[in-house]
Design a protein that fits this description.
The protein is of the alpha/beta class and about 425 residues long. It is about 50% helix and about 15% strand. The chain is built from 16 helices and 13 strands. Helix 4 runs antiparallel to helix 6 and helix 10 crosses helix 14.
Length: about 425
């Protein structure tokens, strides 16, 4: 089976779950060709995994005008009906206003390049991660290229603008939709007609627990860890506020921040203003192996986000036996069970966040119990080998069913002439 994978930017240091999914599918014998709308910046090349994936990925941008023209002419002359259908689809699903039409034109042009490449490589199916801009490219490419497509529905950002991104149409036209959580599926059900609900399936993002050694918990904890993009949605300012509170009882407390993003400069300024410079260390993006090393030195992992799907980094912490404190939002409660394998706190509440962290720092027995239960949860429900096996079965069955439908349609066609 030969399939294509598309994202807006691949491979990124923050999207290791997609890279693991691709690699695991290849281990199952699937010939996966990776495509990306934009090239990946050097800051994301933090490990050999990213470097190897970048070498084998086809990048749509920047565009060679001659190749762009030839790709679209080829698609137009080989299947004019499908090409005109793709133009109509692009027009009907465009976001409102001049800006929306302008962006849709670019998505259409990008889709032509993608469709041409997929047809040349004789790829039978296209799967997309992150259903916003790259999801539109995937839908249009499928229409003009006569191959099937599917996508993984993550959230939460697409749910904020689901009508503008035409999530309903994307679900309707997809061969299937892989939802990372029950929460994500339920949000998709809001916008999809009832007859399309059965094509939305739960396939968790996952990790390989075997790669993570469990930590041993010393009597007194002091080391906190955050891993993720440094953007407003991650709520790091709330974590800094909670750190000010915690320092009164734990003057030697430390927070390591792994990641980068548009808010880094502002966060560093706030760290200085709050008098936390000696307690907070911003270390930038790190490779997967380096993140595992940081987890080995951690007493509590903290996720203070305002918006999430189900963060893979929480799975990594729990697989390492590190107790977690996370906000009770979106699908996080499907991974973190409050007072069983971690603590869940209201988003935006630095007092409750500090209180939960304090409980864990002061009690090694709770840290040990949460760590053990956390690893069990990941092994049972978020093991990438199990989840990708489900995805592989889903793709195989969906393609076989689609082929059978096409054969029946061809057989019945003479009856309607």
């Amino acid at each position: 089976m030969r399939i294509a994978y598309l994202t807006g930017e691949y491979p990124r240091a923050t999207d290791t779950f997609i890279q693991r999914e691709v690699i695991t599918l290849r281990k199952l014998g699937v010939d996966v060709h990776t495509f990306s709308v934009r090239p990946t910046g050097e800051e994301h090349m933090v490990g050999e995994e990213q470097k190897l994936e970048r070498l084998s990925t086809f990048y749509i941008l920047p565009v060679n005008p001659i190749n762009l023209l030839l790709a679209h002419l080829s698609l137009l002359f080989s299947s004019p009906k499908k090409y005109i259908g793709a133009i109509k689809l692009a027009w009907s699903t465009s976001q409102p206003g001049f800006r929306g039409a302008f962006y849709q034109l670019f998505y259409f042009l990008e889709a032509g390049i993608l469709a041409k490449q997929i047809k040349q490589r004789q790829i039978v199916h296209l799967h997309n991660h992150i259903a916003e801009g790259s999801g539109t490219v995937a839908m249009l490419a499928s229409e003009m290229g006569s191959f099937t497509y599917s996508f993984t529905l993550h959230g939460p950002y697409i749910f904020f603008r689901a009508y503008q991104w035409r999530l309903d149409e994307k679900i309707k036209r997809a061969l299937f939709v892989s939802c990372i959580s029950n929460y994500a599926r339920s949000q998709g059900m809001i916008f999809a007609p009832q007859e399309n609900w059965n094509r939305m399936h739960i396939i968790h993002c996952g990790i390989d627990p075997a790669l993570f050694q469990t930590v041993s918990h010393k009597k007194q904890g002091k080391n906190l860890l955050f891993v993720g993009r440094l953007v407003a949605a991650k709520g790091l300012l709330i974590l800094l506020e909670s750190l000010v509170i915690l320092k009164r009882l734990h003057p030697d407390i430390s927070l390591t921040v792994v990641g980068n993003g548009s808010e880094r400069e502002h966060l560093e300024q706030m760290t200085y203003s709050l008098g936390l410079c000696e307690s907070v260390n911003y270390v930038g993006y790190k490779s997967q192996s380096e993140v595992r090393e940081y987890l080995q030195q951690t007493d509590v992992f903290v996720m203070s986000s305002f918006a999430e799907g189900i963060p893979v980094v929480l799975m990594e912490a729990m697989a390492s036996g590190v107790p977690v404190v996370a906000t009770q939002i979106a699908g996080i409660s499907e991974l973190v069970e409050d007072s069983v394998n971690g603590y869940l706190v209201p988003p935006g509440n630095s007092l409750e966040l500090a209180e939960s962290i304090k409980k864990l720092l002061n009690n090694s027995q709770i840290r040990e119990t949460f760590g053990k239960k956390g690893r069990e949860k990941v092994e049972e429900n978020f093991n990438i080998n199990h989840e990708v096996a489900k995805l592989h079965s889903l793709i195989t069955n969906a393609l076989q069913k689609n082929q059978q439908v096409q054969v029946r349609s061809c057989a019945l066609a003479p009856l309607y002439k």
